[in-house]
Amino acid sequence: MNEQALAWDDYRFVLAVGRAGSLNGAAKLLTVSHPTVFRRINAIERSLGARLFERAREGYAPTPTGEEVIAVAAEIETRIAATERRLAGLDARPSGKVRLTTVEPLLYGVLPPLLARFRVAHPGIVLELITDNAVRDLSRREADLALRPGGKPPEGLIGRKVARMATGVYRPRSLRLPRGARPDDLADYDWLVPDGNLAHIGMAQWLRHKQYDRRTVFSANSLIALRDAAACGMGLTVLPCYLGDAERRLARVGDPVAGLAADLWLLSHPDLRRTERMRVFADALREGLAALQPMFDGRG
């Protein structure tokens, strides 16, 4: 086998199939079509004269040769990303592109005004926003900065807490509850529950602990979907206060739930600390979010 016959783009395709375990998954990672991945992998195997993946109904599993090529590809990717970070860290100009990854709910009433003000102040910086519930790899430059709720930052990243977010139970205004109803005494009502890749978050765990999930009538992997379904009268749900309080068709039940508050972290890679565009953007986010703390607390 002659691995030197492969270009970096070939390694990228092999690495994507190895990580995804399927052609469809690799196509999504590479933002190309399924047939393109199929053709490239077949061409690479012909070029090497070796099979890299075993095809099965369950997906693509690497052969021992494939595992070797995947390991080489991952090492090359790591070196390229490290070089790009070092070069980006030498850039002292407040211009260029900044890629921010965050969760979808923060786009509703929180981030857009901050981003708009930043663009006015720094027209030379182009912002790219990636919103999903997946954790983007900052080491591989899938994003430059991450704004996410959670615990301490992963090893190898710099993290700063920029806000503390309260969480509450919300009812449709059309649903009347007994006077003095509290979040701890709502087992007789229909509930809307976080599911899928949100099934692990504190709100979902609290619902399971209270056994409210036994009355699940709707579940979704989107807090926006849960908020909108509750606003349409489908049942009760749990939401961050900044998201639930902003919806006039909802009313909070009692005070925010003790123990469900979460820290909002701004994460970055150490190699980008001296990049001027990253610094000014991170500073703007920290200042803007700090000013919104009353909204995150559920006080305004």
TrEMBL record:
GO biological process, one term: DNA-templated transcription
Annotated ranges, domain HTH lysR-type: 1-63
Swiss-Prot/TrEMBL keywords: DNA-binding, Transcription, Transcription regulation
UniProt keyword annotation of Cell inner membrane present: no
SUPFAM superfamilies listed in its UniProt record: Periplasmic binding protein-like II, Winged helix' DNA-binding domain
GO molecular function terms attached to this record: DNA-binding transcription factor activity; sequence-specific DNA binding
Pfam family, one: LysR_substrate
Keyword NADP: no
Domain of life: Bacteria
Signal peptide: none
Family: Belongs to the LysR transcriptional regulatory family.
UniProt-recorded name of the protein: Transcriptional regulator, LysR family
Originating species: Lysobacter capsici AZ78
